[in-house]
């Protein structure tokens, strides 16, 4: 199965594109607002009950029933597949409340890896970690935690970022699989009417309010058999194996897109106008969005524009769009100039009325010579020379001449003394 692009893994638009669904959502809005206000008060009672009662089967049943009033419905397949002896659960990640939902089915702890600590961390149901170092220190801390038989199992999300759960899984990080040699995967699916389950860049508070607004949200939890580490398995190999098994169970694709790639994708999306992201949904993760006009440029776009302008000064007859397109692939001024000179990139030359573009170009003067000996730039040959050395020399002469011409134009444009004038 072909690996999906980044935009298929994350939702950046909450409302549907279908006009009929938008009309139904508009008619539902007054009722949804009433539900939102009512469920906010009920949610406070759910929180107080979950804090007051001890963690046992009765508490989980009561809280699960109260959560159904909040519109959170939890379904699971055969619970007998869950092994009580397993101390590490591995699940895909879709919403900010996945760990709360699984806690309604079995007692487990999820470490807080990023975000607010203190009361907010505890209130959201996370286990606060006092480790501020790298993943190695965190792994050692969790190994010590798991070695104590009286502690609850760990629930980990190796994707480390949420997805929409429809197209694929992010690449699993490997440190979670070095804690213990046995893990139990959990396949999680989430569905709701009208709206997207979660947005890629939305906060947990916003998602909680939208959860109270919609009629219901259904969580489907499927327990999978425990996975034992093979004798020759590294942590990376085991992570890949569990990722593939989870992808097959969910009917999605296992990808190499990471949480860092998601952050980069969202950063680019903030600089793309809304109509661009709608009319061009097939843009891949590695594509560089180009925004017309003068505003809304990212640092990468500004760098690309500066490089394109440098190439344009050297080759003024080449269209700027052709230059930008090749620079997006090469990210190198020299390589793009070489591609254009060698004819690897086809283009239609622009008519330049400026006299400066038609004047003969000269090569650099040799060091130590008092005269301005120069060679006029020969036109590009229609065919390659027979000797490779001659072809390379001809190309190098043209490049030297073009660089010299661009340097003189730059000095003249900014009123700077050239090297020859200083001497």
Q: What do these coordinates show?
A:
With about 425 residues, the protein is α/β, with parallel strands linked by helices. It has two domains: about 5-270, no CATH class; about 300-420, Ubiquitin-associated (UBA) domain (Helicase, Ruva Protein, domain 3, Orthogonal Bundle), CATH 1.10.8. Helices cover about 45% and strands about 10% of the residues. It has 14 helices and eight strands. It has helices spanning about 20-50, 55-70, 100-105, 120-125, 135-145, 205-215, 235-250, 260-270, 275-280, 300-315, 320-330, 335-340, 390-415, 420; strands at about 70-75, 90, 155, 170, 180-190, 215-225, 225-230, 255. Helix 1 packs across helix 6 (about 205-215), helix 10 packs across helix 12 (about 335-340) and helix 11 (about 320-330) packs across helix 12 (about 335-340). It is elongated and about 85 Å long.
Number of structurally distinct domains: 2
Low-confidence stretches: 274-297, 354-384
The number of helical runs is 14
Please indicate the percent range of residues in DSSP E strands (runs of 2 or more). 5-15%
Provide mean pLDDT, rounded.
79
- Biggest β-sheet description: 6 strands, mixed
Q: Would you report the number of β strands?
A: 8
Helix content: 40-55%
Please name the defining characteristics of this protein.
423 residues; alpha/beta; Helicase, Ruva Protein, domain 3; 8 strands
Secondary-structure map:
Layout: H1 19-52, H2 57-69, E1 72-76, E2 88-91, H3 98-103, H4 119-123, H5 135-147, E3 154-156, E4 168-169, E5 182-191, H6 204-213, E6 217-223, E7 227-228, H7 235-250, E8 253-254, H8 259-269, H9 274-279, H10 299-314, H11 320-330, H12 333-341, H13 388-414, H14 419-422
Parallel strand pairs: 1-6, 2-3, 2-5, 4-8
Antiparallel strand pairs: 5-6, 5-7
């Amino acid at each position: 199965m072909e690996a999906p692009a980044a935009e298929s893994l994350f939702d950046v638009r909450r409302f549907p594109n279908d006009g009929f669904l938008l009309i139904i959502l508009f008619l539902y809005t007054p009722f949804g607002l009433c539900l939102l206000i009512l469920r906010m008060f009920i949610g406070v009672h759910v929180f107080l009950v979950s804090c007051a009662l001890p963690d046992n089967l009765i508490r989980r049943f009561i809280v699960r029933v109260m959560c159904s009033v909040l519109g959170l419905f939890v379904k699971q397949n055969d619970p007998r597949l869950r092994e009580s002896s397993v101390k590490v659960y591995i699940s895909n990640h879709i919403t900010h409340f996945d760990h709360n939902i699984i806690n309604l089915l079995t007692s487990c702890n999820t470490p807080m890896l990023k975000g607010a600590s203190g009361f907010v961390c505890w209130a959201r149901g996370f286990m606060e970690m006092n480790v501020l170092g790298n993943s190695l220190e965190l792994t050692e801390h969790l190994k010590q935690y798991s070695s104590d038989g009286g502690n609850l199992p760990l629930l980990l999300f190796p994707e480390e970022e949420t997805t929409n759960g429809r197209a694929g899984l992010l690449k699993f990080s490997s440190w979670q699989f070095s804690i213990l040699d046995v893990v139990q995967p959990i396949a999680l699916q989430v569905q709701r009417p009208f709206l997207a389950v979660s947005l890629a860049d939305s906060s947990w508070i916003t998602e909680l309010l939208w959860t109270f607004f919609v009629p219901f949200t259904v969580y489907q939890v499927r327990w999978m058999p425990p996975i034992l580490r093979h004798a020759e398995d590294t942590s990376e190999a085991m992570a890949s194996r569990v990722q593939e098994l989870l992808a097959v169970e969910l009917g999605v694709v296992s990808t190499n897109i990471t949480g860092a790639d998601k952050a980069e994708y969202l950063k680019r999306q903030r600089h793309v106008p809304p109509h661009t992201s709608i009319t061009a949904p097939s843009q891949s993760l590695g594509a560089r969005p180009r925004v017309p006009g003068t505003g809304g440029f990212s640092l990468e776009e500004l760098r690309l524009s500066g490089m394109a302008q440098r190439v344009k000064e050297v080759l003024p007859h080449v269209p700027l769009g052709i230059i930008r397109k090749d620079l997006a692939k090469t990210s190198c001024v020299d390589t793009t100039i070489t591609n254009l000179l060698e004819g690897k990139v086809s283009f239609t030359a622009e008519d330049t009325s400026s006299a400066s573009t038609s004047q003969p170009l000269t090569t650099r003067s040799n060091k130590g010579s008092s005269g301005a000996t120069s060679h006029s730039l020969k036109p590009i040959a229609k065919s390659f020379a027979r000797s490779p050395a001659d072809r390379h020399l001809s190309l190098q002469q043209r490049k030297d001449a073009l660089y010299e011409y661009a340097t003189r134009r730059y000095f003249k444009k900014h009123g700077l003394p050239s090297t020859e004038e200083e001497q």
